[in-house]
Design brief:
This protein is an alpha/beta fold and 405 residues long. 44% of the residues lie in helices and 14% in strands. It folds into three domains: 6-102 and 240-269, Response regulator (Rossmann fold), CATH 3.40.50; 106-238 and 275-279, 3-Layer(aba) Sandwich (Rossmann fold), CATH 3.40.50.2300; 287-389, Homeodomain-like (Arc Repressor Mutant, subunit A, Orthogonal Bundle), CATH 1.10.10. The chain has helices spanning 18-32, 68-73, 105-118, 136-152, 169-182, 194-207, 224-228, 241-256, 287-299, 306-313, 317-327, 332-349, 355-361, 367-378, 382-389, and strands spanning 6-12, 37-41, 60-64, 81-86, 99-103, 124-127, 158-159, 187-191, 215-220, 235-238, 265-268, 272-274. Helix 9 (287-299) runs parallel beside helix 12. The termini are far apart.
Length: 405
């Protein structure tokens, strides 16, 4: 059997971005499942640097064309190039003559909108990014949101806010809070990224705006780091970025073997939604119950007790318990336990981890108690749940709304 030829391929991505990391993961998955042999060029710190790329002696390139500097640097490349980026409402905006793999921006927004409207919401808004060449993909999501709102006969409400910087952070928070107060409630808000959604979550918490009762929030990217940095678990649309990477690698592989693919454009739809607490909107409950649940969502994993929740709400424990029983049919402790269980299943679905650490992170008094709760409520041990959940890495954690604690 002959040894396949080894090709030298450059991957021009910024792996500090979850989208780029997922695309690279898809490329790696393609290579591991085929006989293709590539020597990959990436910077040692996985950052994108274009200096000297025009002199690089290789066989092909896969690159992030959402970055206009990358598109400009490769405009005259004689090597086979496969471009990866966002979709465009105007077909004339796609790169000319290149193989292009795009995330479908309209379907990303539509999936988030469908989720919010199924929760019973009738007011919607989009939290975007300032207009800039490097943010063209965000502006395309604005176009998709506007087109969808007009089609469904809703008002178009888009807020871009300030770019992130240490100097502008306080002003940015103030502007976001003002915008949040101006919106009709309850409202469903789609953020163009999870990072943007995380900022808006902080603004809601600072302003005392209940999530998701008053603001149901969903981001895009399913970024585990953004989720770890939010007090209330963040819902997110899962981009098909790994599938984009696999598709891009396949296209380049064909080019490297002499197949001509002039102007090929493939749109990849989202892979689904990871539904967490931030978008699980319910019909308005009693204000005491709403305030209590907002507090519990933030601090359930920090070992809070029912007395602390009642103190926050400003009523007696017995009164709060009565409101919970009447409005929800279960106790304050049940709600705390439900959120802890949801947090634990989310961590376990992410892969191998120490059960003692999971129990501590999620507010259980011990790993033995967490084991007992899993057996009672889910019918399996934490390890069995983890094994089942990790069979499909792309599957979101099992929803817990139906659990009767």
């Amino acid at each position: 059997m002959s040894t396949p030829k080894t090709h030298r391929v450059a991957l021009l991505f910024n792996a500090n971005k979850i989208f780029d990391r997922e695309v690279i993961t898809g490329i790696a998955d393609y290579l591991s499942s085929t006989r293709s042999s590539w020597d990959l060029f990436l910077e040692e710190d996985f950052r994108l640097r274009l200096s000297g790329i025009e002199r690089w002696q290789g066989d092909g390139i896969i690159a992030d064309f959402d970055d206009p500097a990358v598109a400009a640097a490769l405009a005259d490349s004689r090597l086979p190039v496969v471009a990866v980026g966002g979709s465009y409402a105007n077909e004339a905006d796609y790169p000319v003559g290149l193989s292009y793999v795009a995330t479908d921006n309209f379907k990303l927004i539509k999936l988030a909108y469908d989720h919010l409207i199924e929760a019973g919401l009738r007011h919607f808004a989009l939290f975007s990014l300032p207009e800039a060449e490097g943010n063209r993909w965000a502006q395309e999501r604005e176009k998709a949101f506007s087109a969808l709102m007009r089609r469904e006969r809703f008002d178009v409400e888009i807020f871009r806010g300030l770019a992130t910087s240490a100097q502008s952070w306080d002003e940015a928070m103030e502007q976001q809070i003002q915008w949040l107060h101006s919106l009709p409630k309850p409202v469903g808000i789609v953020a163009v990224t999870d990072a943007r959604a995380r900022q808006l979550m902080q603004a809601c918490i600072i302003a005392g705006i209940a999530v998701p009762e008053q603001v149901a929030l969903i981001g895009i990217d399913n970024d585990p780091l953004a989720r770890m940095l939010t007090r209330i678990p963040l819902s997110s649309v899962i981009q098909g970025a790994q599938e984009m990477g696999r598709t891009a690698a396949h296209l380049l592989d064909q080019r490297l073997h002499g197949v001509r693919l002039p102007g090929t454009c493939i749109l990849v739809p989202p892979a689904g939604i990871n539904v967490m607490a931030s978008s699980k909107h319910e019909a308005t409950k009693h204000p005491y119950v709403m305030r209590a649940r907002h507090f519990i969502r933030q601090y359930a994993c920090q070992g809070i007790k029912t007395d602390q929740v009642a103190d926050y709400v400003g009523i007696s424990r017995s009164s709060l318990e009565a409101y919970f029983r009447r409005e929800l049919g279960y106790s304050v402790h049940d709600e705390i336990l439900r959120l802890r269980l949801e947090a634990a299943t989310s961590i376990l679905a992410g892969g191998d981890c120490n059960l003692i650490d999971v129990a501590m992170k999620c507010g259980f008094t011990s790993s033995q108690y967490m084991h007992l709760v899993f057996k009672r409520e889910l019918g399996c041990t934490p390890r069995a749940y983890q094994h089942r959940a990790t069979q499909d890495r792309h599957a979101p954690p099992v929803p817990l709304e139906g659990i009767q604690l």
